[in-house]
Design a protein that fits this description.
Keywords: Coiled coil. With 146 residues, the protein is mostly helical. The chain contains one helix and no strands. The chain is 99% helix and 0% strand.
Length: 146
């Protein structure tokens, strides 16, 4: 029986060792699972940073494109400003010409109005003179008839 006890003890020791190894393997498995989860999280964060970096890269490319187009746009803006100033000057000249033309038209209307008034005075004077002349001729005729 001693041999069986010894063998049982040896088997119990082996079982304890195997249980210890299993616990150790389970701990390692848990640690590895935690490491995998951590790696997945790190990978997710890395993907986010990669997307963010890619977005920044695209934004920088757009900025460079705009920056390169900027001198051309500034040149076009300067041309537009020059055209605006030219048109502004032309409008001012047209406005002055219109005002001058309107002033001349008003002066002409006043001249016509004045001449009409003078003409009406002359017509009235002529009518009055005609009436007086006719009266004078009638008076002379009457004296000669007598």
């Amino acid at each position: 029986m001693g041999k069986i006890t010894k063998e049982c003890n040896d088997q119990n020791i082996k079982i304890r060792n195997l249980n210890a190894q299993i616990r150790h393997q389970e701990e390692e498995t848990s640690n590895l699972k935690a490491a995998v989860i951590t790696c997945k999280l790190d990978l997710g964060h890395a993907k986010c940073r990669l997307h963010s970096t890619n977005d920044q890269y695209v934004a920088m490319q757009k900025y460079d494109l705009i920056k390169n187009e900027n001198p051309n746009q500034e040149f076009k803006l300067e041309l537009t400003r020059n055209k605006f100033q030219q048109y502004k000057g032309m409008i001012k000249e047209e406005k002055n010409a219109f005002i001058s033309s309107e002033r001349s038209e008003n002066e002409y209307k006043l001249f016509i109005l004045y001449n009409n008034v003078e003409m009406n005075k002359m017509v009235r004077s002529f009518k009055l003179l005609t009436v007086k002349t006719l009266s004078y001729f009638e008076l002379i005729q009457q004296r000669f008839e007598v």
